[in-house]
Amino acid sequence: MTTQTQALETVPSYPSPLKEFWQSFSHNKGAVVALSLFLVTVCCALFAGWLAPHDPIEQYREHMLTPPSWADGGMSTYLLGTDELGRDILSRLIYGARISLFIAFMSVIMSFIPGVVLGLLAAFYQKHLSPVIMRLMDIMLALPSILLAICIITILGPGLVNTMIAIAIGTLPSYTRLTRAAAMAEINKEYVTASRVAGAGTLRLMFLTVLPNCMAPLIVNATLGFSSAILEVAALGFLGLGVQPPTAEWGTMLSAARDYIERAPWVVTMPGLTILVTVLSINLMGDGLRDALDPKLKRAA
Amino acid sequence: MSLLKIRNLRVEFGSKAHPFPAVDGLDFEIDRGELVGIVGESGSGKSVTMMALMGLIDAPGRVTADELVFDGHDLLKLSPNQRRKIVGKDISMIFQDALTSLNPSYTVGFQIKESLKVHLGLRGAELEKRALELLELVEIPAAKSRLDAYPHQLSGGMNQRVMIAVAIACNPKLLIADEPTTALDVTIQAQIMDLLGRLQQEHNMGLIMITHDLAVIAEMASRICVMYAGQVVEQAPVAGLFDAPRHPYTQALLAAIPEHSKGANRLSALPGIVPGHYDRPKGCLLSPRCRYAQDRCRSERPALLDGVRCFTPLNAEGNPTHG
């Protein structure tokens, strides 16, 4: 108690928003663990070239379906074993992180930006634009997102970029609706009127005045969207519609390993576990973010 | 020439067939360096008038006026862009609730600097200096460190001071204060009013003080405009209005100040509420609530004559005159 009072007296400046955020975020131990797990995944993706012990598409034909190193018959060079073509699973997982995270990240960006712009337009032009935009979003929401993604890929053809586009379009409505709702609540507040009185134009009002105050739910939605995008990438890969072999990708690895599920269970377990851990850590992180960013859930100081 | 001149301003809401006039034929004028108070109970159209002046009435609302001239610019003829340039720089507004009228996402310093940058084109060290100067002008202690504070880190009174600093940043010619002290506690109220009065004198601004607290403006304003149901019912210099109100509504408002009911068992109150869309009386708008109302008041609407809108203005003793 005394140390706290002293600390307050010796530090008269205001805590920076980042510091304040970290204080409330670090209260949630699960979220911190999730954050570190996620950072490990990101590092794997960024430094795959240095971290991976083998080339992900190099086929060691003499070591096909080698079990993990700790199991009987395992080899220490293939830490998590090899798959049906003798490729090192650990290396493939590390390189796969690159593809999965990249697609997920890009698809979040590609749905976040247009979604926010559409949502703001709908909130600012409630009479004319709002019904058009929102009905369009309703139509998109009426289709299950994976079905919509399959449709789009069928039209555009499978591939890296098309997978991003398909996933981005599927998640667009949630950003639009969220932004519109948050912006409509903010628009009627006096600071927006004050800004208009001071001569702010519509663009300035939209992006500089109102948007920063709608960011908290959007950031949370984006992190959760990130994890569901990873799942969707994997699902599309599993269906053979995503990234094409021989590129290492978690979902494609899962689907290729289906045939060996009884003979070599590690081939299907490893990518499955990786997807599980990554998605779980991002979700936990998102929960932590929500608690830290939402002033209503914030712990009293 | 007056700084602001409004003639026959009408603001209507609702359908064209059955419009509801929130402001009904309002005439108003203010000179440079003048402090005018606008009083009236909730719903009498005080704030809507100012919103219309600033061009903030949106689509379903309709604004018409015979004349709306500010500092030589006809506001009715300006394009939204030109209007923004003039209105944003030369007319400023202070709102009732300082906590919600500052953007929670930005520091106080940023919000003060924003309009300095846009309207005056200040940059760098000059900008920094002016922002600090403004905070000192509104008597915020430790102004330098406060520049980096967010609105939620400051108290309500402090926020209202910041709001005033933002409003006077570009040396406006006209400042509109919409119930600037309603959300503050009494000790702070006096300080804020003093501050506003001092700034108005120093900068020779026109100041329109909207309030329903008569006591607040009694000692500051030169002229008071009493509004009821979208109309001006009485307009007079402060001294005359307080000593001898000529409109029954003003009389009732003054009687409703609790200090005037000293010794009485019950506080004096004006029965009823401001008429809405569906209960607008045919005659004088005050007639259902006026203790002096006669048959003529219920069938005809009086015009604003000699600063008072009443068929039988009250005399110095507070009794209605006839003929």
Amount of helix of chain A: over 70%
Question: Largest interface, by Cβ-Cβ below 8 angstroms: which chains and how many residues each?
Answer: A-B, 21 and 32 residues
Average pLDDT confidence of chain A is 84
Q: How many beta strands in the DSSP annotation of chain B?
A: 11
- Read across the widest sheet of chain B, the strand sequence of neighbours is 7-8-9-3-10-11
Helix content of chain B: 25-40%
Structural class of chain B: alpha/beta
Give the N-to-C terminal Cα separation of chain B. Answer: 35 Å
Biggest beta-sheet profile of chain A: none
If you had to describe this structure to a student in words, what would you say it looks like?
The complex is a heterodimer of chains A (301) and B (323). Chain A has 301 residues and is mostly helical. Helix content of chain A is 70%, strand content 0%. Chain A has 12 helices and no strands. In chain A, helix 10 runs antiparallel to helix 12. The longest helix of chain A has 37 residues, at 202-238. In chain B, the strands form 2 sheets. Chain B has a 6-stranded mixed sheet with strand order 7-8-9-3-10-11, sandwiched between helices. In chain B, strands 1, 2, 4, 5 and 6 form a 5-stranded antiparallel sheet that branches. In chain B, helix 4 packs across helix 5 (124-137) and helix 7 (156-168) packs parallel to helix 8 (186-203). The two termini of chain B are 35 Å apart. Classes of the chains: A mainly alpha (301), B alpha/beta (323). The interface between A and B is medium-sized, with 21 and 32 residues.
